[in-house]
Specification:
The protein is mainly beta and about 260 residues long. The chain has one helix and nine strands. The protein has an eight-stranded antiparallel beta barrel with strand order 1-2-3-4-6-7-8-9. The N terminus is likely disordered.
């Protein structure tokens, strides 16, 4: 084929393509690929958080995962007292109403089977106070049958309330149980929640910097170099004057966590 004829053929083939292509975009023109709209942020879920730069395999993705967590905790503190007059604050973020108490916290649970035990034996001014979780039960889907492992909860995580900052929970449990004082039943069929979390309180002052002023990251207001265990037992009856809004909310946390 002669060069001139070849040029005509190429031109006739390319022209329709060029004619239906959009014109080059000007800088900042939303019609251009360089200024394509950013993808929508992913919804926050118990195992998915927007803005993260690292990912973790879920426990069930590990061939050797047996679901069993055996943990004890010490350096226990109580927020408020059992007999605080309403209105009271039993979150205690500023640590002004926090006191050390003697005792032990032991848990031995199977996250896969949603079975096991949680028991706290504490020595309070009122006597020997024992809290025991008797029935594991989920109250929302992210609680995964009553025991869950390696999930985000609280804050803006999309799982749990905002009374605590968002944290990675290594293991957590929910359900119903009871508390006794000197062997006598004090509370029965009250809700109980325990969680082993990243450090929510300062190691020395016990202050929880939550909400965190000047927050620069979508991460929670926690120190991932520390770990703690929190638990509460709360009444089904509410009281809007209190924080949290329950008639009874006995809250304890431990600053020393041991895995077995």
């Amino acid at each position: 084929m002669k060069p001139a004829a070849l040029a005509v053929l190429i031109t006739s083939f390319l022209f329709p393509i060029a004619a239906c292509s959009p014109p080059p975009a000007e800088p900042g023109d939303a019609s251009g690929d360089s200024a394509a709209p950013a993808p929508e942020p992913r919804p926050r879920q118990a195992r998915q958080q927007d803005g993260t730069t690292m990912g973790l395999y879920a426990p069930e993705q590990h061939d050797l995962y047996d679901g069993r967590f055996i943990i004890s905790a010490g350096k226990i503190h109580q927020v408020g007292t059992l007999d605080d007059p309403s209105p009271w604050d039993h979150m205690g973020n500023d640590a002004t109403n926090v006191r050390a108490v003697e005792g032990t916290i032991e848990l031995d649970v199977n996250e896969i089977e949603n079975t096991g035990t949680f028991r706290a034996e504490l020595i309070l001014p009122e006597g020997e106070y024992v809290v025991e979780l008797e029935t594991f039960k989920e109250f929302s889907p992210c609680q995964d049958g009553g025991i869950a492992a390696y999930l985000f909860e609280h804050g803006d995580s999309g799982c749990g309330d905002a009374n605590w900052p968002k944290s990675l929970l290594y293991v957590a449990g929910w359900g119903l149980g009871r508390a006794t004082m000197n062997g006598e039943v004090l509370y029965q069929d009250y809700q109980i929640h325990f969680m082993v979390t990243q450090g929510m309180r300062d190691r020395e002052t016990l202050v929880a910097h939550y909400p965190l002023e000047g927050k620069t990251s979508p991460a929670g207001a926690v120190n991932p170099a520390a770990m703690q265990l929190d638990f509460y037992i709360r009444s089904p009856e509410t009281n809007d004057a209190n924080h949290p809004k329950r008639e009874v909310f006995d809250h304890f946390f431990a600053m020393e966590v041991t895995w077995h």
